[in-house]
Write a structure and sequence with these properties.
Blueprint: E1 3-7, H1 12-23, E2 29-32, H2 38-47, E3 55-58, E4 63-66, H3 68-78, H4 90-118, H5 127-148, H6 161-176, H7 184-195, H8 197-206
Parallel strand pairs: 1-2
Antiparallel strand pairs: 1-3, 3-4
Helix pairs in contact: 1-3, 1-6, 1-8, 4-5, 4-6, 5-7
C-alpha cells in the first residue's frame, strides 16, 4: 500500500488531510509541491492539471483523489482508524459535513481573501474587500461561539472531519482577524485544536515556513 499526499506545509487546505492522516496514524508518503519551482510545478500539473493541492494518490487502488474534504472522506472509507472522522450515523455525518463546509466557506475563504490582498502590489489593494472579509470573520466567530458551547470539539460525539477543517481555518483566521475577547469559547476551542497531537504535529512541521506567511503592511 502506497498513499502519496501532494501538498505544501504552509497551505491551509493541505492541513486538513494531514490532520486526518496523523490522527489515525495512517502510513503515507508526503510529496512537497513547490509551484515556484518549474520542475516541481510541471510534475504536479502532469498529475493534476488543475494545479491545486492537496491531492491524494492511492497507488494500490489506482485512485487520484483531489480536494481536502473528499480526501478525508476517502480516508474514512478505505483507511479507517481509531478516530471516526466521518461518523456512520447519517444525521451526525450530515452535521459533520455541514460544519466542514461552514469552516471552509465562512472562515477559510474570507481569511484567504485577506491573505491574498497582502500579496497584491500596492496599487492593486482591495481595502473594501478586506473590510468585508474581516466583517465576515467576526460574524463567523459569533456563530462558532454560540455553537461550540461546552463541547470539546465541533460535534459532541467527538473529534471529526469538522475539527480537521476548523483547525487550519481558525488558526490562520486568528492571524489576520484576531478572535476578540467577546468570543472566549471560540478562542478556547482553537487552543484545544492546537494542543491536539495530530494538529500540533502539523504546526511543528509548518513552523519553518511561517516566515513566508504575508504580514500586513
Amino acid at each position: 500500500m502506497i498513499l502519496r499526499l501532494y501538498f505544501h506545509p504552509l497551505a491551509s487546505f493541505c492541513w486538513k488531510p494531514l490532520i486526518a492522516l496523523y490522527e489515525n496514524e495512517t502510513p503515507f508518503q508526503g510529496v512537497l509541491v513547490d509551484l515556484a519551482d518549474p520542475a516541481s510545478r510541471a510534475s504536479f500539473l502532469a498529475l493534476w492539471p488543475i494545479g491545486k493541492f492537496p491531492v491524494l494518490h492511492d497507488e494500490a487502488r489506482a485512485e487520484l483523489v483531489p480536494e481536502s474534504t473528499i480526501i478525508i472522506e476517502y480516508l474514512a472509507r478505505y483507511f479507517p482508524g481509531r478516530t471516526a472522522l466521518l461518523p456512520t450515523d447519517p444525521d451526525v455525518a450530515r452535521r459533520t459535513r455541514l460544519l466542514d463546509r461552514f469552516y471552509d466557506c465562512y472562515v477559510m475563504e474570507p481569511m484567504q481573501k485577506i491573505v491574498g490582498d497582502r500579496l497584491r502590489a500596492p496599487g492593486q489593494k482591495d481595502a473594501f474587500g478586506v473590510a468585508q472579509a474581516k466583517a465576515a470573520l467576526l460574524t463567523s466567530y459569533g456563530v462558532i461561539e454560540k455553537d461550540i458551547g461546552s463541547k470539546s470539539w465541533a460535534l459532541a460525539e467527538g473529534f471529526t472531519m469538522a475539527d480537521c477543517s476548523a483547525a487550519p481555518a481558525l488558526f490562520y483566521a486568528n492571524q489576520v482577524q484576531p478572535i476578540p475577547d467577546a468570543f472566549p469559547l471560540t478562542a478556547a476551542y482553537l487552543k484545544r485544536l492546537e494542543a491536539r497531537p495530530s494538529f500540533a504535529r502539523v504546526l511543528r512541521e509548518a513552523e519553518p515556513y511561517f516566515k513566508f506567511f504575508p504580514q500586513e503592511t
